[in-house]
Structure formats: C-alpha cells, structure tokens
Amino acid sequence: MSKRLAEVARKVGVSEATVSRVLNGKPGVSEGTRQAVLTALDVLGYERPTKLRGERARLVGLVLPELQNPIFPALAEIVGGGLTQNGYTPLLCTQNAGGVTESDYVDLLLAQQVSGVIFLGGNYTQADAQHEHYERLRQVNLPTVMVNARIPSLTFPTVSTDDSAAAEQAVLHVHQLGHRRIGMLLGPTDHIPSQRKLDAARPLLDKLGSPLTDELIVRGLYSLESGQAGATRLIAAGATAIVCASDPIALGAVRAARRAGLRVPEDISIVGFDDSALMSCTEPPLTTMRQPIEAMGRTVIELLLSQIAGTSESGEELLFEPELVLRSSTAPAR
Fold first, then answer.
1. Of 187, 159, 191, nearest to 78 (Cα)?
2. Contact criterion met (CB below 8 Å) for 308 and 116
3. CATH 3.40.50.2300 domain range(s) in the chain
C-alpha cells in the first residue's frame, strides 16, 4: 500500500497524505487533484478502490491496427493531442500479428473504466472479421468513435474519407493522361473502404470506355510487399497506370515497376492514397489522394466529447473530401 501511495504521489506531484485522502474519499482535496490521482492510478496499473470504480477515468483508449503505415501514427498524434488539450489521457493500443487482439484491448479498456474509445481502423472495416467485442461497448454505452468506413450493422459515430470520391478522382486523373489499361491495387475483398473505391471506379471506367476487367483488379494487404506482388501481376496484365489503396502499396508498385525494367512515370503511372509522411520525398515523389487528417482528427474529438457530455447519440458517418495531390509518379501515357 505504501509503495502504491508513493508512486502515485510522485506521478501527480502531491503528498502521500493527499493521495490517501483521495483513495479514502476524504474531503479537503480539489477536484483537479482528485482526478489527477485517479488517472495516475489507472496509468500505473493500480486498481481503483471499489467505491471509486463507478466513475469513469479520464482516459481514452486509442486503438490502432498497426504502426507501419505512416497515416496511423499521424492520426494518433492529432487525436492524442486533442485529447490531452481537453484533459484526457490517451492510452495507445497497437495491434500486432499474433499479439493482443482488438477484442482483448476492449476488455482491458473496459476494466480500466476509460471515458471512451477511438478506433483508427480495425475489424469494423472488414465484413468477415470478428465484431462481437463492439457489442460490449454498446452494452455499457461507452462513448466510441470510429475512423474509416465501417460495416453497415455498426452504428457508432464514424469519420471517413470519401473513398468513392477518391477513386473517381484518381481514375479520372490517369484517364485524362491517356491511360486506358488502368489497374487497381486494393485491400481484402471484405474491406469496406476498398469495396467503396471499386464500386465507384468500375462504373466510371465503363462510362469512359475503359472497362475495369477482373485481371486489372488485385486484392492484397496494406503493405509495401503486397503492393509489389500485386503490381507485378497488373504489369503482366498490361496496365499502364495503377491506382492504389494506400501509399505503402503504391511504393511497392513503384518497386515492382523498376524490377520489371519500367520507368515511373515514363512507362507506368502510379497513384497512392493517404499522402502520408515523406511521400513528397520519395523517388519519384508520389501522386496521391490526400486524406484531410487534421480536420478529421478535430471532428473525432468533437464527436467523442459530445458523447461523454451526453449531448449526442448520433451514429452517422461523416465523409470528408479527399484532395488529389499531383507529383511526379504520373505522366501522359506513351
């Protein structure tokens, strides 16, 4: 007990006597100090006293599917900063293959009595993934916000980039450059954002007279290696332009083109998606669809805080317009 008091006191910068008064529900402690002590308990991994567990900790779970794609750390930085400015401490929960699952993180966050959860991607974007843990959040009415398109059956407030508009802009760009064999590198078949991109690109290309045949659609993972493997197949199918579902996939496509002896963009054009960090510094600098993550991050915070305050229960999806950023990975078809 004395060790716990000492650690919490050091963390908050108060005396052990003050910590003791908070833990025992005694008067004479300001509300700000009381909340700081309770938050320190949560951060240090100590259980709150039973009589204090009914209150939510000023902690918010920030669940990321990975850290390899630069867009997720960038989003986490924006959202985490917004949480801190509003008096909440973000708890970063990153999934790894074979490690702690999203469902496990939900259990851990519920046990910590967090004030809310923000998902920056996850199982909710895939129709065939496990979704039961979201119902646990619904049952306790925990404020929750999701970023990226979700399956229709989940009705949590959601912030997304308009995938349909992104695909249309990217496809129209390379078509206007004279490309007629346009391939697409997408995520898994059950991935909702990828399906939206495909559902928008296919009719547009049909209308433009350049049908998107099955051999010009390749599914894979959101990684450089998967992008390279998929682009190799599209190059063999005669694609002269490739529209990708992420920047790492696009960088893999650039590598595949070079391995095939092709020049980017002289022989083949490549478009990414995200405009994540350093895409202007690649060789060639990547033409990509920019997600407006600053505006999206601010909206995520607003949605979460309104739920915490009990002023909003809307489960609608808010779509943000992407922006085509022209760089040097696209050029007129030969």
1. 159
2. yes
3. 59-161+292-320, 163-290
Q: Which of 172, 166, 197 is closest to 269 using CA atoms? A: 172
CB atoms within 10 A of CB 281: 8
Cβ(50)–Cβ(44) below 8 Å:
no
Write the class of the CATH domain 59-161+292-320: alpha beta
Fill in the amino acid letter for 308: I
Is the peptide bond preceding residue 248 cis, with omega within 30 degrees of 0?
Answer: no
Reported as a pLDDT band with limits 50, 70 and 90, residue 240 is: very high
**pLDDT on residue 112:** 86
Q: Which CATH superfamily is domain 2-52 in?
A: lambda repressor-like DNA-binding domains (1.10.260.40)
pLDDT in tens, 253-303: 999 999 999 999 999 999 999 999 999 999 999 999 999 999 999 999 999
Read off the pLDDT of each residue in 174-187 and give the average, rounded to a whole number. 98
Token digits of residue 104: 């496990």
Q: Which residue type sits at 44?
A: L
How far is CA 160 from its chain centroid?
A: 9
Q: Angle, nearest 10°, between helix axes 16-23 and 2-12?
A: 110
Q: pLDDT tens-digit profile of 125-159?
A: 999 999 999 999 999 899 999 999 999 999 999 99
Rounded distance between C-alpha atoms, residue 251 and residue 223, angstroms: 9
The answer to whether the beta carbons of residues 237 and 260 sit under 8 Å apart is no
What is 163-290's CATH number?
3.40.50.2300
Distance CA 90, CA 96 (A): 19
